[in-house]
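input
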Amino acid sequence: MAHEKHKDIARTSLFIRSLPDQHVEPLLERAIFRHYERGETIFLQDEPAEGVHVVLDGWVKLYRVSPNGAEAIVGVFARGESFGEAVALKNGPYPVSAEAVTASELMVVPASVLVEMMHEDPDVCVSILAATFTHLHGLVEQLQQIKAQTGAQRVAEFLLSLCSQDSGGCTVDLPYDKALIAGRLGMKPESLSRAFSRLKPAGVTIRKNHAQIADIERLRDYAEEDPANAWSKG
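output
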């Protein structure tokens, strides 16, 4: 049985928050909680989809391997984010592979449990659609950030999304492979390094795989200001 703290984290995830309240606890009781070490495979491309995965702690990458052996990163997921909804409900194979890029805690909601709940209560269908729409909206926002924000501002937004509080100072964990963050933000690794340097005046210090944020509100102001002003501070 999962530790209660994992269930508490799961309750804050978008996927669980989207469900009708009366279904949350029954679903958590039937979910599977797993630990993965860094570099451990979660599932492989073309394996039968097991269910919806929710990241409770750590970092997970989704990737595909081309015929020539090159690896293409499809997505990087952190605490509170979920993946595999659509393919699990289709009862099809995974179109990508998943790997824990840090020690990670995941919750898996079996597809059979979701389908059963959807048959019992149509509101569950609406909730899953709402969560999927929010994912899509997030992708649109990422595209907008690429067009309208500097690289440093995009990194600032990313760090803010990892904070567990709204004000004061905060320290967030990052994967050791910074190229994963760069790929998620649509940047080159060298551009990410420059962006981290630009954030020093905004109170951000990078130490190995940790980002120390001196003042969350100050960093938020930097992320939201006019890009022309943000560039001048680099």
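quick obs: The first helix runs from residue 4 to 12.
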